[in-house]
């Protein structure tokens, strides 16, 4: 059921999320692959079981096996990179920037899908994970490849809504609102 099931599962107090989930998955400047790869990457980064199960199922209907794998790769690499680069930023010691990271990131160079798609997905994961340095790097790469701000904004909107849905549904499972 995917998006429809998640919208139905959201409590009344999250009506805005219900509406936003419908709009970000239907009104976009992104291609179908960019849209569903962004949705899947954001769901993976958000770590909400219910949202991930539903959105992974629906994403499979819209993505090739290669694109599905690339979206998962983007989420996995950003889970590592966002912690590392956010930490460097927070340390505010420029000497760390001169040190070799020593982290394998080969998939970024050859993700198996169009580089723009992978960058959009990496941007979405970085937004969910809160890494300003990675957000700047991916936005810069996308703008350098001619991606309009509206498409970048769509990826950020998708990430924010998918994350909010995942958090809300997990909270409802752990501490349901009073009837």
Automatic annotation (TrEMBL):
GO BP terms: cell redox homeostasis; response to oxidative stress
Keywords linked to the UniProt accession: Antioxidant, Disulfide bond, Oxidoreductase, Peroxidase, Redox-active center
EC number, as in UniProt: 1.11.1.28
Domain Carboxymuconolactone decarboxylase-like, first and last residues per copy: 95-174
Reactions catalysed, as given in the entry: N(6)-[(R)-dihydrolipoyl]-L-lysyl-[lipoyl-carrier protein] + a hydroperoxide = N(6)-[(R)-lipoyl]-L-lysyl-[lipoyl-carrier protein] + an alcohol + H2O
SS bond partners: 131-134
A Pfam entry, by short name: CMD
InterPro entries in the cross-refs: AhpD, AhpD-like, AhpD_core, CMD-like
Molecular-function annotations in GO: disulfide oxidoreductase activity; hydroperoxide reductase activity; peroxiredoxin activity
Active-site residue numbers: 131 (proton donor), 134 (cysteine sulfenic acid (-soh) intermediate)
GTP-binding found in the keyword field: no
NCBIfam families: ahpD, ahpD_dom
Function: Antioxidant protein with alkyl hydroperoxidase activity. Required for the reduction of the AhpC active site cysteine residues and for the regeneration of the AhpC enzyme activity.
Annotated PANTHER family: ALKYL HYDROPEROXIDE REDUCTASE AHPD
Assembly notes: Homotrimer.
Protein name in the entry: Alkyl hydroperoxide reductase AhpD
Gene source species: Pseudofrankia inefficax (strain DSM 45817 / CECT 9037 / DDB 130130 / EuI1c)
Source organism phylogeny: Bacteria, Bacillati, Actinomycetota, Actinomycetes, Frankiales
